[in-house]
Specification:
- The chain has a two-stranded antiparallel sheet.
- The chain has two helices and two strands.
- The protein is an alpha+beta fold.
- Helix 1 packs antiparallel against helix 2.
Length: 85
């Protein structure tokens, strides 16, 4: 349990940075979708997730969501591994 307490602040900081970064990307994607001027065909494969779209805004929302999900999952997995004896 001592190992978890030692690295908990660092893991919390990593989790917050990933969540804020992903949220900013998703917010930027919403702004691009609302403007309606950002149309371009794109195919994105990121951490095993794949998206094919004609809107740059939707691609930004997808990237933001993947960044948040992957960061939080990896932090939780690390906490789980540290908690085991």
């Amino acid at each position: 349990m001592l190992r978890v307490k030692a690295v908990a602040p660092l893991l919390l900081a990593i989790c917050l940075i990933g969540a804020v970064g992903g949220g900013v990307l998703a917010w930027f994607g919403v702004q691009l979708v609302q403007s309606g001027n950002a149309d371009a065909a794109s195919k994105i494969t990121l951490f095993g997730q794949q998206l094919e779209t004609t809107s740059v805004g939707v691609a930004c929302i997808f990237i933001g969501a993947v960044v948040m999900i992957v960061t939080i999952r990896r932090v939780l997995k690390t906490l789980d591994l540290l908690g085991k004896p």
